[in-house]
């Protein structure tokens, strides 16, 4: 379950995160927040625990700064029902995950049927790549994602002027493969590697399929996007 959005949206316990929790099938799901992309910022961690307080959710987190907060990352992640990854620098996230073996641990969790999700960097990471401001204010491609999903991911498609044209150029050039892009507040629900549906908790928002048109350009298709309840 991947999503596009920024800032406090990550820990508004709204429709998208509730949908991810429901997909786990657990009555009292164990949720792990992974905030690597912002350097395990304390504000993000407090926001997670604050948003889940009083809810039927057992909240946990994985930190890598200044050292991992658990002895066995693989066992820890595989004990969860849902793993939700926050936004920030996807380039830094991928580098640190590979350094600490989180990439392999996430694959083991995915293969075990644990719901993986996240926002922005936490959405791109599961894909082959996408567009990122990890390297500076001018967007650049990232192509070394975990690749659990054989597509690219275009986040913030409706809210940042550089995103849409860059995704289209990169897909046309073959730098990125078939790409699923999302407006802010929109998520992509995959079952295995197949897109099951697009969902949103903000009326009017959409997801998009961007693919080569065979003539040097791209075809962009707006996907049917189901509106979720915030309840």
Word description of this protein:
This protein has 231 residues and is of the alpha/beta class. It has one domain (2-227): Rossmann fold (3-Layer(aba) Sandwich). The chain is built from 7 helices and 14 strands. The radius of gyration is 17 Å and the shape is globular. The relative contact order is 0.16.
Summed up, what is this model?
Helices cover 27% and strands 28% of the residues.
Keywords:
alpha/beta, 6-stranded mixed beta sheet, 231 residues, globular, Rossmann fold, 8-stranded mixed beta sheet
- How big is the Rg? 17 Å
Helix/strand structural class: alpha/beta
Stated plainly, the CATH topology is called Rossmann fold
Strand order of the largest sheet: 3-2-4-5-1-10-11-14
> What is the succession of H and E elements?
EHEHEHEHHEHEEEHEEEEEE
Tell me which CATH architecture applies here: 3-Layer(aba) Sandwich
Percent of residues in beta strands = 25-35%
Low-confidence stretches: none
Proportion of helical residues: 25-40%
Mean pLDDT: 94
Q: Can you tell me the CATH class?
A: Alpha Beta
CATH superfamily descriptor:
Class I glutamine amidotransferase (GATase) domain
Q: What is the count of distinct domains?
A: 1
General form: globular
* Count of runs of 4 or more consecutive helical residues: 7
Largest β sheet strand count, sense and barrel closure: 8 strands, mixed
Q: Termini separation (Å)?
A: 18 Å
Number of strands: 14
């Amino acid at each position: 379950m991947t999503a596009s959005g920024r800032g406090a949206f990550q820990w508004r316990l709204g429709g998208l995160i509730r949908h991810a929790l429901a997909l786990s099938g657990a009555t009292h799901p164990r949720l792990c927040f992974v905030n690597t992309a912002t350097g395990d910022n304390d504000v993000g961690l407090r926001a997670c625990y604050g948003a889940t307080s009083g809810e039927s959710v057992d909240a946990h987190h994985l930190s890598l700064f200044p050292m991992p907060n658990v002895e066995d990352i693989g066992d820890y992640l595989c004990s969860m029902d849902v793993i939700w990854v926050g936004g920030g620098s996807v380039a830094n996230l991928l580098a640190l995950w590979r350094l600490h073996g989180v990439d392999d641990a996430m694959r083991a969790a995915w293969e075990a049927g644990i719901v993986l999700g996240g926002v922005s960097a936490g959405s791109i990471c599961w894909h082959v790549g996408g567009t990122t401001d990890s390297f500076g204010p001018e967007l650049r491609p990232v192509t070394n994602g975990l690749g659990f999903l054989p597509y690219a991911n275009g986040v913030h498609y409706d809210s940042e002027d550089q995103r849409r044209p860059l995704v289209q150029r990169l897909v046309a050039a073959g730098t990125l493969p078939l790409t699923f892009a999302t407006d802010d507040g929109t998520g992509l629900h995959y079952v295995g590697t197949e897109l099951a549906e697009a969902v949103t908790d903000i009326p009017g928002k959409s997801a998009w399929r961007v693919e080569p048109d065979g003539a040097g350009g791209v075809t962009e298709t707006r996907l049917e996007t189901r509106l979720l309840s915030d309840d």
